[in-house]
Amino acid sequence: RAMELPPGHFPAARAAAVAVEYLRYLRGGPGSGLRLRELQRARRQDIDDVGHKYYLELELEDVLDKDRTVSCTAEVLYHLGSKTSAPDVQLTVQGELRSTEAADKEFYNRIRSLEKELVAENIPDSHGNVPPELEPIHLLAWVASGYVIWQNSTENTKFHLAQVKHVKQVKRNDEDLQFDFVLLLHEMVSQEVLPWEVTLLWHPQRGARVTQS
Amino acid sequence: DQVLHIVPETIQQVQHLQLLCSTFMLDLWKPLLPEDIRAGEDLHIRVPAPLVQEMKDSLAQHMISYRVLIPDVQKLVDQSMPRERSSHRQVSGGYVYTEYHPMEEIYQWMTQIQKNNSELVTQHILGKTFENRTMYYLQISQPSNKTKKIIWMDCGIHAREWISPAFCQWFVKEILQNYKTDPKISRFLQNLDFYVLPVLNIDGYIYSWEEDRLWRKSRSPYENGTCYGTDLNRNFNSSWGSVGVSFNCSSDVFCGSGPESEPETRAVAQFIKSKKSDILCYLTIHSYGQLILTPYGSTTKPPSNNEELMQVAKEAAAALKGKYGTSYRVGSTALILYSNSGSSRDWAHTIGIPLSYTFELRDTGTHGFVLPADQIQPTCEETM
Questions:
Q1: Is the CB of B67 less than 8 angstroms away from the CB of A102?
Q2: N or C: which end of chain A has fewer CB within 10 A?
Q3: CATH number assigned to the domain covering B103-212+236-383
Q4: DSSP-assigned letter for residue B51
Q5: A23 phi/psi in degrees, rounded to 5
Q6: Model pLDDT for residues B334-358, shown as the tens digit of each residue
Q7: Architecture of the domain defined by B2-78
């Protein structure tokens, strides 16, 4: 019932991008980011009255540690007439992602102890540079954009984070860190660059949560 | 080489780390001496490349967690101190090919390149942009009795794709630096001429430097000056306006008011038409995506010489991958990417140029259009 798809063609590539972005939202943090290394296999099933379901086998790599890869099997379901609902994504990750516990704690403490709230713009800059102290913020922007991209993807879109236009830390009374982002998302089919405001909360043990976008 | 950030949690971990430091003679960046390593305090160690995996395995074995602070120390060093100035000096007096250059500098570069290599290079006017800037192409041609076939390459049709003009400049430099010593290049030049247009969409490129880094289109005004820019790669006369475009000026794929409505498009089209019986290969360079795209974008029906097109493209992708392992996908735009019409590559093929390709250079979305300058060299080397 499920049709085999060429992994190099765009329908499978778009579904794979959604799976990767969803995973970035679930598992990303200031100390780690994942990137798609290869889409190894893709199948599609058209389910009457429901939508199109893609079955994917992916290999991902850690951007900070390229020799470290994990495999992932994913199911991406685009709902029929999907103008208002996000695709459903289920994933299983095989392999260990490197622990970032110590790095996360260090980042958390560093930001909490800032006297002035952190503000930055244009990450990366026009020449593609990211100052090392902003790399964790860049990776958190991937988490935030992962959420936005997952929520807004259809079979006719392929989004990537083009640049972080602006980020502002907002100090909180509870234990979470809060970052208000303005992200620029590039959509491949329309070629548009769309600004998106997202608020991300993050905590070393509890992980990330988007509260507003 | 990598720099690792570790916060040891117990005395045992501290001792193990001290042992690793002395056994491997590691370069401690913080603290300076192994005896100053403390539990609960930051540790930054530089690990030489051949020891990285072993080090990480040892840390994992002892349940010591780490973060990679600097994934490539050499890159960072190179970023702060541009190298290889001297090897470019004879070709064009110290131009740094591993940085992005604004249009003014590219104009100066073209003049210099012709001056320093006048036996091979001539600079010609192609036409003018909407904002009245001159479009120049470089002709690289070894004097000879026979008429040679032409390979045409244009870069920078989309303003934000900075790696593209960087590649065209690199390409010219590479040919001129090596044609006497590299047998492949010297054979090429015996039989072929290269025509290179380093920046097609000059107005847009300047705009991306001065106003909006992510601008794509040209800068011609529409709707009484309330809206700017045509997507030049939707403006050519190949199934113009049929699919993958917008007729709304505010769209990034606005195809213009008609095929070849834009002066930049006309300048390129007129020239290529005039030389078409001699042009063997049309190449247009874009980013990003790591793709070698063949005709067509407007239909999945393959072109008549599809087998040849795919064969050559697959060999190119394999050669490219052989350099640094970078994977490029190969196939028609309509299958690999999306539907589009009015592209320069499709137009070149329909008027009879047999080998017609769009290259989408690095990367696949991690940096996208803002590819770091330190990737210029590897991108260009592998693409050569």
A1: yes
A2: N
A3: 3.40.630.10
A4: G
A5: -65, -40
A6: 999 999 999 999 999 999 999 999 9
A7: 2-Layer Sandwich (3.30)
In a shared domain, residues A11 and A89: yes
Strand runs labelled E in B187-341: 192-197, 221-222, 227-228, 279-287, 291-294, 329-332
Sheet hosting strand A159-170, strand order edge to edge: A119-123, A159-170, A177-187, A193-203, A207-212
Same domain? A197 vs A117: yes
All residues of chain A having their beta carbon less than 8 Å from the beta carbon of residue B253 are 190-191
For an interface test with A, give the residue of B61, B100, B162, B213 to mutate (most A CBs within 10 A): B213
List chain A residues with CB under 8 Å of B66: 98, 102-103
The encoded tokens of residue B281 equal 């290969």
* Cα–Cα distances in angstroms (integers) from residue B24 to residues B15, B27, B166, in the given order: 14, 9, 41
Same domain, A69 and A127: no
Residues in Cβ contact with B22 at an 8 Å cutoff, skipping those fewer than 6 apart = B34
Residues 28-57 of A with CB under 8 A from B: 31, 35-36, 38
Strand partners, B47: B2
- ipTM for the complex shown: 0.88
Reply yes or no on whether B360 is catalytic: yes
pLDDT of residue B93: 62
Residues in chain B: 384
Q: How far apart are CA A181 and CA B311, in angstroms?
A: 45
CB atoms under 10 Å from CB of B304, counted, come to 10
**Average pLDDT of B256-280?**
97
The residue among A51, A73, A94 that closes a domain is A94
pLDDT band of B80, cuts 50, 70, 90: low
Please check whether residue A71 is in contact with residue A91, taking contact to mean a CB–CB distance below 8 angstroms. no
* Candidates B161, B264, B360, B382; catalytic one: B360
* Domains in chain B: boundaries: 2-78, 103-212+236-383
Say if residue A39 is in the same domain as residue A111: no
- Within this chain, do residues A86 and A108 fall inside the same structural domain, yes or no? no
C-alpha to C-alpha distance for A73 and A36, rounded to whole angstroms: 12
The fraction of chain B above a pLDDT of 90, given in percent, is 75
Domain boundary among A72, A94, A116: A94
Mean pLDDT of chain A: 94
What is the reported pLDDT for A66? Answer: 80
Whether residue A56 is predicted with pLDDT greater than 90 in this model: the reply is yes
User: What is the mean predicted confidence (pLDDT) over B233-254?
Assistant: 96
Same domain, A14 and A110: no
CATH at A18: 3.10.450.10
Residues A161 and A73 in one domain: no
Closest CA to B194 of B147, B155, B143, B150: B150
Secondary structure class of A195 (helix, strand, coil): strand
**Residue-range definition of the domain harbouring residue A181:** 100-212
Token pair, residue A122, equals: 């244009």
Per the structure, the count of domains in chain A is 2
Query: Which residue, B270, B33, B53, B253, is CA-closest to B157?
Result: B253
Same domain (yes/no): A51, A111: no
